[in-house]
Structures are given as structure tokens and as C-alpha cells.
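hiii, so i know i said id send this last week but things got crazy w the move. better late than never?? heres the sequnce for the chain we talked about at the cafe, plus the structure i predicted for it. fair warning i was half asleep when i ran it
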Amino acid sequence: MPNKLTGDVKAMIVGALSDVGGRQYLAAQALENPASFLSLVGRVLPLQLTGDPDNPISYVVRAPSPVDSAAEWLRLHAPSDSRQPVVIDVDTDTNNGDS
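okay and structure toks below
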């Protein structure tokens, strides 16, 4: 019964996580052991996102955008019904003036 065993082990892991602080414990591990935490994140997150063929998932990630207000950030980043992608061009020079 591999499925029952897998479910039992998963229940034990979730129980142990709850015993040591749950979300707060994971947040502390993210700061104290980032490599291990990111390894966990990589195993937990889905490997592939899929959408409806008539309404596919699309996104453009360039870099954080400096804005003057929350309203401006929402105007640039909030989902809209227009289905028009928001593209924010950013200087990709990683030298930052250091030579």
C-alpha cells in the first residue's frame, strides 16, 4: 500500500511541522537556512503551470519597478480584464557603476 504509506508519512511531517511552530518555523528556516528552504520550495511548488487553452497564463518578469505610490504599483501590476500584458522595461546593467 504505497499510497497509504505516503499519506501516513505526509501526515507525520505535517504534524511535526505543527509541533515546532508551523509557518513561523518555516519563516525562520528561510532566513537561517536559505539553501535548504529553497530546496523545499522547489520540491513543493508545481513544476508546470497550465491554463485554459482559450485563456492561457502569460506573464513578463523583468525587474522590480520603482513607483511613487501604491496606486501606481497597482496600475502597473494588478490583473486586468483587458488581457493586455504590462511590460516594464528596466536597465539590465548589473555593473551598478562599480568598475
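btw The mean pLDDT is 75. thought thatd interest u
miss u guys!!
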